[in-house]
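Notebook entry, structure prediction.
Reason for the run: the old model in the group folder had no record of what sequence produced it. Starting over properly, with the input documented here first.
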Amino acid sequence: FENNFATENGGAIYISTAKLTVTNSKFIKNSVENSKSSGHGGAIWIYKGSSKISKSTFKSNTALSKVLKDHKKATKYQFGGGAVYYNEGYDHTLTECTFTGNKASNHGGAVYAHKPKSVSIKKCTFDKNKVSYEDGGAITFNGKKLVIDGSKFTNNLAYEDGGVMDVLSLTKEKTKITITNTIFKGNTAYKGAGCIWMGVKTDFTLKNNQFINNK
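New structure, fully documented this time:
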């Protein structure tokens, strides 16, 4: 899937209340871009469904606002999930996937998970993903359960908080995060948390991870 475009959600794929399975696929330079107040999922947008994505590549996908030019006005616009956007729904898995150079204006340079039941990320690589105006250089998570294992996050960037990930920073929802055997290297946030920004009711477990030169 290459160079596909949407003005609302899902540059390449839009799924509603269904199960999506993707294997051995490439999503390159797909985009959502408009002058309205919101747009999500540069490559994939999934609404109230579930998904399994494995052994796939997401490169240079974008979810960008045409009119947002000033950081002070960022909250008026919401563009998230440069590559993938989960909107509510059930269980989602990412296995052996690579996310490189994806970009969103507001949240989740690569992935934005908005109120799913669970997301599992295993043996994935996130490199050089970016959020231009707000939080979560690679991932923004607003759901019940997130598990990350055996993955690598390098050189991701957020303008505000969470160079790698923003978790419920503006809400009081209860969520459980478990991260194991994962490397965080060279990630940056211009405001707070070079790697991970946590919400106030996060049950957070870390085991056997490496944090190297984040800032």
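Summary: The radius of gyration is 15 Å.
The old model has been moved to the deprecated folder.
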